[in-house]
Amino acid sequence: HFVSAGFTYERLGDFDSALRLYKQDKFDFGVEKILRNQGKIEELVKYWRETGNTSRLATHFEDNDPEQAAGFYQELNDYRKASGCLARAGKPVEAIKLLVDKKLYEDALRIRENIMDTNGLDEARLNASMTRCYQELAPRYEVSDPERALGFYCKLDDQEGIRRVAIP
């Protein structure tokens, strides 16, 4: 009944009463619609925080504050989106480390491939993450893509792996 009454108040132009009823019934669509139409984005963000709507918060901050969005995506266990946000926020090493920690090695390599300039980055952490990727992926590719496995073993300077893949 709160939603129905809220619609009535909304049609009458009494948005404060409609908003109060929508909030009381936890009718997110109505609350969001009124707050957006009134341009009350800060209040909308506050509402999402109060109601624990992490996915809306993540989506909202994705363009404006990608680092904050990354935190919300991590809460949602969406590590690929979280790492993408970290990379856009200028934190590619943290993005790669997150992916490596979650065993998403291919995704970590893709982010590394997009880094053109490593000046100012923690190269030791970056290299450690890449080494872990190569160590994990090289054995997996020995049969399906030996050329790729060979490339990983070369980057690791793993002579035994190189011989195993290069000499059938």
Q: What is the number of beta strands? A: 0
The tally of helices reads 12
Low-confidence stretches: none
Average residue pLDDT? 93
Q: Helicity range of the residues? A: over 70%
Order of helices and strands: HHHHHHHHHHHH
Beta-sheet strand percentage?
Answer: under 5%
Structural class: mainly alpha
Overall geometry = elongated
* Biggest sheet details: none
Instruction: Compute the separation of the termini in Å.
Output: 74 Å
Write down the Rg: 24 Å
Structure description:
The structure is a single chain. With 168 residues, this protein is mainly α. Helices cover 80% and strands 0% of the residues. The protein contains twelve helices and no strands. The longest helix is centred in the C-terminal third of the chain and has 22 residues, at 123-144.
Please give a quick description of this structure:
This protein is mostly helical and 168 residues long.
Spell out the key features of this protein:
mainly alpha, 168 residues, 80% helix, elongated
SSE topology sketch:
Layout: H1 2-12, H2 15-25, H3 28-37, H4 41-51, H5 54-64, H6 66-75, H7 79-88, H8 92-101, H9 105-113, H10 123-144, H11 146-156, H12 159-166
